[in-house]
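User: Structure with adenosine-5'-triphosphate, C-alpha cells only please.
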Amino acid sequence: MLNICVFEGDGIGPEIMAPTLRVLDAALAARGAEPLSYASHPAGAGHYQKTGEALPEASVAAARAADAILLSAMGLPAIRKPDGTEITPQIELRFRLGLYAGVRPVRVFPGAPTPLASPRAGEIDFVLVRESTEGLFAHMNEGIVTEDDATELLRITRKTSEKLFDFTFRLAERRAAQKGRPGRVTCVDKANVFRAFWFFREIFEARAKAFPGLATDTAYVDAMAMWMVQRPWDFDVLVTENMFGDILSDLGAGLLGSLGLAPSADIGDDAAVFQPCHGSAPDIAGQGVANPLAMILSGAMMLDWLAGEKDMPVLALAASDIEGAVGRLLAEQRDLTGDLGGTASTEVCADAVIAALGQP
Ligand code: ATP
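Assistant:
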C-alpha cells in the first residue's frame, strides 16, 4: 500500500483536503486499484501559533518516509514570526527535501474562464518546469543592502541543472507518449545578457543529446512572457530558472482564469510534494465555499507521478479519469464554486467530480 503524507495546513486547507481524499479514493476504487494510506501531520501557521513550531522535525521525517506528500495551503497573514515574515513551511520543505523541479501545468479546460478571447485558448496545454532550489533564490535572506546600494546573488549549479533538464526531458517524453505526438522542450533564459544563463543553456543543449526523440529550442524570458499571451498554444514543455519560473508560473495561472484551477508539484530525487498554487484564502475560510478543483487536480498529478515512479499504470488511468471529470464540470458549467461563477459548495463540487468519474 502506498503511504501518503498529508498536510492539511491553514485557512481553507482542511476544507479542500478532505474532499480531495474522497475523490482520490473514488477514482482508485473505480479502477479497481488498491486504496492509498493517508497520514496527516502538523505544520503551518496555526500549528506555529499553538506550539511555536511551524514545521516540526517529526513532520519532515514523515514527509521523507512517505511515497508522496499532499499539501493543501499554509500560512495566515495575521500570524507572523517575530521578524514580521510569514510562516511558510511549504517553502522550507522544498529546500529540506531538495525539490528542485517545480512543475506547473497550464491546461485550459473548455469552459474555464481564461481571459484570452482567442478561439484557440482551449488548445492551451503546456507545462512549465521551474527550478526551485537555486537561481536568484539560492541566497535569499542574504542580500546585502547598504545606504547606497543593494546586491543579491544568482547561483546556478551544473549538478542541479543537469538533474533539472533530465527530469524535464523525461517529463516531455512521458507527455508525448500519453498524447501520441512528438514532444518539445523550450529552455527559457536570458543567455544574451548574463553568462550564468549561457552556462544554463549550454547544459540544456548538452543534456538534450541524450533525448534524440524530443525537439528542443531556446527562448529569452522577455520574449516568452509575450508569447505566453500571444500564442501559448504553441508550447509543450518549458524549463527555466527559479525567479523567471516564479513570474512565468503566475502568468500561466492567469491564463487559466482562476487560481482555483492551478495545480502544482515540487519534485526531487527522493520526495515529491503536490499542492494547489493558491494560498490559504483566509477571507473565505470556514464557509465551505472554497474551490477544491486545484487541490483535486494536484491529487491527480500525484497519482500520475506515482504511476511512473512505482510502475503502476492503473494510477495514471485514475489520474486521467479525475482530469476528465473536472473537464466535464467546466464544459457543462455545473456544480462550480463562486470563484468560477457557480453557487456550489466545496463538498457539492467534489461530489460532482466523483459522480462524473468514468462518464463518457
Ligand atoms: P499566498 O501568498 O499564501 O499564495 P495569496 O496572498 O496569493 O496567498 P490566496 O490565499 O491564494 O492569496 O488568495 C487570493 C484570493 O483568491 C483570495 O481572495 C481568495 O479568497 C481567492 N482564492 C484562493 N484560493 C481559492 C479557492 N481554492 N477557492 C476560491 N477562492 C480562492
